[in-house]
Amino acid sequence: MQATDYPQGNNPAAEFPPCRLGVNIDHVATLRNARGGVDPDPVRAAHLAIAAGADGITAHLREDRRHIRDDDIRRLKDEISKPLNFEMAATPEMVSLCLEVQPHASCLVPERRMERTTEGGLDLVGQAEFIRPHIDRLLSAGIRVSLFVDPDPNQIEMAKTLGAPVVEIHTGDYQQAAFSTTPERIQAAFDAIKAAAEQAYELGIEVHAGHGLNFQNVQNIAAIPQMRELNIGHFLMGEAVFMGLDQAVKEMRRLINDARTGRLV
């Protein structure tokens, strides 16, 4: 599905609140850690992203600390002027650290040691009793909880059962579908995301999305009326090499804003 397929001048997203942009700064830390030391500083990147229009900052503290480190999370919470979304595995260690840091929000994600990046959503249906205590501890501490899920109706329904106020829909399959020569596959991937967003909204859950979003595909996702936040990192950090982080974030912000008002390209 191309952005131009969306009806021009008849955008129901305009009737909903604006869609926020969360910028994930993990891979600034990846670059830093490749050489050791302190440069480049992910907290500086967070400040630049906010100045360019980011509504919040996301950082994933992995169990192996391959990019973001504990002191990065603490500094982000103390120093940035926008909400911090602490992305993490559902483990006692991570929950305890999150309770200490007290970010605005926590996004629980699946984590496998050998994966290069998060490969899919949580299995809420199969792991409900394992995940439930972690959700309850975070919510009890006043930390907003988001669950990273595939666009599967059973997972959305279980998120409601578990009491999560937010779901973040995994958009990786939609991004990967763009490499297919089958238009039907692209459309099916988009339709699944749209249906999941509609279902979550009807259940009273706030809808976010992320993974694999870029300048080419973000507008279709941002134009889904129920979408309230997009979290984007790897692509923006890659574009920053060519156009600067400031300009990359500004362009992503523009595309999202235009999608909400029907000005699609």
Task: Please write out the topology.
Elements: E1 20-24, H1 26-35, H2 42-51, E2 56-60, H3 70-79, E3 84-88, H4 92-101, E4 105-108, H5 128-140, E5 144-149, H6 153-161, E6 166-170, H7 172-177, H8 183-202, E7 206-210, H9 218-222, E8 227-232, H10 234-243, H11 245-261
Parallel strand pairs: 1-2, 1-8, 2-3, 3-4, 4-5, 5-6, 6-7, 7-8
* Name of the CATH homologous superfamily: Aldolase class I
Residues in helices, as a percent range: 40-55%
Number of domains: 1
* Strand order in the largest sheet: 1-2-3-4-5-6-7-8
Mean pLDDT: 92
The tally of beta strands, per DSSP, is: 8
Rg, alpha carbons: 18 Å
Distance between the termini: 13 Å
Order of helices and strands: EHHEHEHEHEHEHHEHEHH
Largest sheet: 8 strands, parallel, barrel
Structural class: alpha/beta
CATH architecture: Alpha-Beta Barrel
CATH topology: TIM Barrel
Seen as an oligomer or otherwise, the chain set is: single chain
Q: What is the overall number of helices?
A: 11
Proportion of β residues? 15-25%
Low-confidence stretches: 1-9
Can you walk me through this structure?
The chain is α/β, with parallel strands linked by helices. The chain has one domain: TIM Barrel (Alpha-Beta Barrel), CATH 3.20.20.70. 45% of the residues lie in helices and 15% in strands. The protein contains eleven helices and eight strands. The protein has helices at residues 26-35, 42-51, 70-79, 92-101, 128-140, 153-161, 172-177, 183-202, 218-222, 234-243, 245-261; strands spanning 20-24, 56-60, 84-88, 105-108, 144-149, 166-170, 206-210, 227-232. An eight-stranded parallel barrel has the order 1-2-3-4-5-6-7-8, surrounded by eight helices. Strand 7 (206-210), helix 9 and strand 8 form a beta-alpha-beta unit. It is globular and about 45 Å long. The protein starts with 19 loop residues before the first strand and ends with a helix.
